Amino acid sequence: MLNRIDPLRLLALTLLALPPLALAALGTLWLWERDALLYWLAGLLASAAAGYGLQYLLQRRERRLLAEAATEPNPDWSPRAEAVWRDVEALASELEPADWPLDDSARLMELARLTLEQVARRYHPQADQPLFQLTVPHTLLILERASRDLRRDITEHIPFSHRLRIGDLLRLQRWKVTADQAFLVYRMGRAVINPLDALASEAWRNLRDQGTGIAQAELHGWLLRAIVRKIGYYAIDLYSGRLPLAEGDPTAAPTPRSRADLAQGAPGDAEPLRILVLGRTNAGKSSLINALFGRLVTPADTLADTTRGLIPYRLEREGLTQALVIDTPGCDSAWLTEERLRAAAADADLILWASPAHRPDRQVERACLDALRAAQAARPEHRPPPLLVAATHVDLLRPAREWQPPYDLREPSGPKATNIAAAVAAIAADLAVPIAQVVPVALAEGRVYNVDDGLWAMLLDQQEAALRTRLLRCLEARRRAEDWDLLRRQLIATGRLLKALPQRLKAPRA
Ligand SMILES: Nc1nc2c(ncn2[C@@H]2O[C@H](COP(=O)(O)OP(=O)(O)O)[C@@H](O)[C@H]2O)c(=O)[nH]1
Ligand SMILES: [Mg+2]
Predict the structure, then answer these.
(1) Distance between terminal CA atoms of the chain?
(2) Which residue of 229, 310, 311, 339 has the fewest C-beta atoms within 10 A of its own C-beta?
(3) Ligand 1 proximity of 279 Cβ (cutoff 6 Å)
(4) Does the Cβ of 396 fall within 6 Å of ligand 1?
(5) Residues 341, 347: Cα–Cα separation, whole Å
(6) What's the pLDDT at 474?
């Protein structure tokens, strides 16, 4: 490196550097003679420490701001969407800023395409060109949303971003490379002339480089990750049916299905939370509904199950979104075929399963639940409704004569409480549900137990999850309607065009 430098140039550099160096040497001597050198050194150290500390704080603040601007996955997404998001995150974290220069817009479009493709491939694994499945209006919608968010994040989280130009970022980067080369020569020269000074300034340079390092490289990396994440986010939203071309809350109006179920629906009705009550014949499904309402709304009977078909009841209660509770014939009845069960469950936001605690044969129930789970697993773009199990008839457990609620089931004392706790555990195991989702109840007239505090508390606990299921269900209904509506409008427009075509052809060209 040194022998590439003209000796005369080196001489010029030395001559230029000599006066300030002499000043430093004379100053040191002066301090030394006055015994003030130590004070000066202490002052130097203190101000260096303060400066470094301040720089460190600033840098931390900038890093935190950037970290806060990271795009998070949407908690309302389906399990499949969550899996695709992990792919997008992986793509974003693998990006090397050097491969994606900011001044190359073609490269940046390439990055956008790569992200869209990553998502598209997961949703259309059979297509060899999955991106071709995306319509033009939808692609524009993704880019529009992603750009809008990105602009907001940048203005809110990057200091001085309103004055920052892409050119500034690039200039900073180029300047750093040139400056580093020139600086190297200067440092080597100085090490020869004044080793001690060189050592001190080397240490300072290390500190200083850490302080300014965040500026371009990190910002560049952040920007690339933000682009991938934003585009990925909206692509997932779109493919999972959450980003319709129309704006507005999809749950604001009832779906066609619920409109029919609400029958005497009031005009301002939103989509209700649909609670499906399932279980074997005589499990206590109808009794459970009566207990939830606190009065008789549906006939409960010991003889054959009289429920024919799905019967909706409108349930309103403090703290609960307006709900439809749907009574069903037993899952062991001829009416409730697997087909009908699957259709009913696809329209449900929460499933309430009634399981009689005094009947230990639960194979029928398990088979029915397993069929339901298999149907749900086959629809990963849908959020499965939360499942609660009501262990009914606990009053009939041994000793059958004893009935003196309340019972402490956490630390059961006495045979009744022990048997209730054991039945709850057996139901959880037999039906393969977490024990925390099984609640023991009694529903016989005059013996209603643990409905208001136990069952209702659990229902309200699950409300949040049920609302997420409702949202995806409504979006799907809206998308179905939207597809038809769009096609209809396009066809009408085409018809108009065809009708006008003869005249247009006849008209003289402008
Ligand atoms: N002892 C007792 N009887 C119950 C309980 N739950 C329901 N029953 C009775 O069991 C019978 C069947 O109940 P029902 O609600 O019609 O069952 P469904 O066929 O599932 O709708 C009715 O006679 C109810 O009174 C309970 O927790 N304890
Ligand atoms: Mg019934």
Answers:
(1) 71
(2) 339
(3) yes
(4) yes
(5) 10
(6) 86
